[in-house]
Amino acid sequence: MGLYELQLNGQRVGDWLLTPGWTSYTKRQPYQTYDVTKLLQAGGNAIGLMLADGWYRGNLGWKEQRNSFGEYRAGLLQLHIVYADGSEQTLSTDASWKASEGPVRMAELYHGETYDARMEVTGWSTSGYDDTNWKAVTLVDSPLELLIAQENEPMRIAEEIRPVQVLHTPAGETVLDMGQNMVGWIRFTVKGEAGQTITLKHAEVLDKDGNFYTGNLRSAKQTVTYICKGDGTESYEPRFTFQGFQYVKVEGYPGEVLPEHFTGCVIHSDMEQTGSFECSHPLINQLQHNILWGQKGNFVDVPTDCPQRDERLGWTGDAQVFVRTSAFNMNVASFFTKWVRDLKADQFPDGGVPFVIPDVLSKDNHSSSAWGDAAVICPWTMYLCYGDTRILDEQYDSMKGWVEYIRSQGANSLLWNTGFHFGDWLGLDAREDSYTGSTPKDLIASAFYYYSTSLLSLAAEALGKREDAESYRSLGYKIKEQFRQEFITPAGRLVAPTQTAHVLVLMFGLVEGETRSRVIRTLVELIEEQQFHLTTGFVGTPYLCHVLTENGYHDVALKLVLQESYPSWLFPVTKGATTMWEHWDGIKTDGSFWSDDMNSFNHYAYGAIGDWLYQVVAGIDTDHKQAGYKHIHIRPKAGYGFDYVKARYESIYGEIRSEWALSEDGELTITITIPPNTSATVQLPDARLESLTEGETSVQFAEGIHVQEQTAEGVTMLVGSGSYRFQYLQQRR
Ligand code: BGC
Question: What pLDDT sits at residue 731?
């Protein structure tokens, strides 16, 4: 209940940080196990626990909220001993334990840590220590049935970076520049007199004059204070806090502030990196870098909106928007399995879903469309990417609960036109005084109702629940009919002239035939009106390029993606961003900030373009009928402004690779790898069978390649596992 660091015989046990992590503690209380054999010694042994408030009872949210999960900090521990003769003994925390205060004077996730090294208690977790003056602990009630073992990768220092420079700002501040907006903390060494106080303040950006800027942190202090004991070179790093920052203002440091005295410890849930994407366009490579770092900084046990201000919460909308991209970059199977279990635990009896998971906000309101849909989209995406039906099985009631919740809202069970919705959050077609784009909220809500119902039907099918599969398919069909009646004129015009509205109906398959053609044409016109700029917010942006490519406008998608002027994905990149920004104009063209009140420079949502880079430009995708990349689709969109693309994805079957390079004279070389025990459908754009070779042979005669079709669009083949090198002449685009 809180955070702990465990010590045995004076040594820290393990390298897991911010333990026990963050879950919906009142329903699921996590614990960790460690093999401590090596730390034991002959004779006396001693165990100690340091505790801090953390998520459990520290400051959470922007309203100075505390004690979100309980009033007391507490620790529960068991030491299981197996003796050489096979006998066993268990030692546990009980009333005989003793407690005292230590050098950590303040520790808060948002605000930092204050450590007075003069108060260190030498040897406190060793057996020789005299604890006569320590007080007895207080026993608190803790329902043991809530205990769950660690479910996902622990948080660790995943990498360490050094400041790239020490700045002296116009305001006279000494500031470390880490060269990267990062999440974690600073480790440093110092030689000072006893009582010398060093303060580190953390910020994401400098203002337009080059001064240290913390306005966007709101009430989060992000301040680490260290008071020297005056004992030669001292080294310190915090334990019970983390900061989101690129710049560190150093105050009170005795002697010269040199980069070598400071190390940035990058902390996140220690998941395996599974994907990489590289191409001939340096700004797109930086964009991919920013997407990945947005993920690192916000996958700190819970998928959070941001890692720096007084928020850092598991916003459901943001998570569903980014989930597929995240699954390319890293193995997020356990990470999301844990999180959707919390979602299920926090879901209301009527199926409603809190805005954030773990839920610390539901007193205000809950269940917005496109946010609550995380209940369906996240487990479905995990199934899609990892092919494990257990997650669908476990989450099925939660998924169904959400769809039934929507069905029960308002008088019309086939539309969702009641209640509160965030809408197209931060869409640029918002009114001056609003955060929400102008796409009608009932259109968004009803479109997501249809989408979640369709996914639920697919999930039921994957689980062999035939009746449900059929009944949600038919519910979906009816929603679609209602949707068309409500939002599309008989002539095929969509009532809302916004990019996001057009994107949603195309993406979710709410229009067909002639209407579809009209909707895509209108979307392209809307984009042209903006001189190839987007106006979409959180809801429309993730799908924008997908629907353009899918419907024959890949060139328009590329113009948007390669657009460098505001608003665009590359605009922040040209401004030196190293992570994704919350706003398209976090820093405006004139260098001023969007606003102080909600301006994160590390918000992964718009990083959702990453899955389009992997899925479309590199062309790596799976098939929901043979999920988890059992059957793979390789359909690279070669050319169009790139000379080469190299992508790899470490699937659960092994490495999938898709690389292509276009030579000056239009010869395209596509190299792919298909892992063991899988098969792939390969579609090569603009290829002609007669001139298409694999290795040295025409594909028509190549072994292991089954040509399926030659169409105007190209050649489609079925291949088994192995590596292939295709070559053909393509018109340069
Ligand atoms: C968060 C978002 C979140 C939103 C809900 C913001 O404060 O940072 O990313 O989805 O609130 O509208």
Answer: 60
Cα separation, 217 vs 236, whole angstroms: 24
Name the residue of 217, 304, 310, 315 whose CB sits within 8 Å of the most ligand 1 atoms, as the mutation to test its pocket. Answer: 315
Distance CA 368, CA 235 (A): 47
pLDDT of 588 > 60? The answer is yes
How much distance in Å is there from the Cα of 534 to the middle of ligand 1?
Answer: 20
Residue 323 main-chain phi, psi, to 5 deg: -55, -40
Per annotation, catalytic residue among 108, 113, 153, 311: 311
Cα four-point dihedral sign 210, 216, 217, 219 = positive
**Contact indicator for 654, 635 with CB cutoff of 8 Å:** no
Residue 432 confidence (pLDDT): 83
Distance 420 CA to ligand 1 centre (A): 14
CATH number, domain 3-101+121-147: 2.60.120.260
Rounded distance between C-alpha atoms, residue 383 and residue 624, angstroms: 8
CA separation for the pair 401, 350 (Å, rounded): 7
Residue range 102-131: mean pLDDT, rounded: 97
- Determine whether domain 620-729 maps to CATH 2.60.420.10: yes
Q: Has domain 313-563 been given CATH number 1.50.10.10?
A: yes
Would the pLDDT of 733 be above 70? no
Task: Establish whether 256 is a catalytic residue.
Answer: no
Is 713 annotated as catalytic? no
**pLDDT value for 252:** 98
Q: pLDDT at residue 344 above 80?
A: yes
More reliable by pLDDT, 134 or 594 = 134
Nearest ligand 1 atom to alpha carbon 598: 7
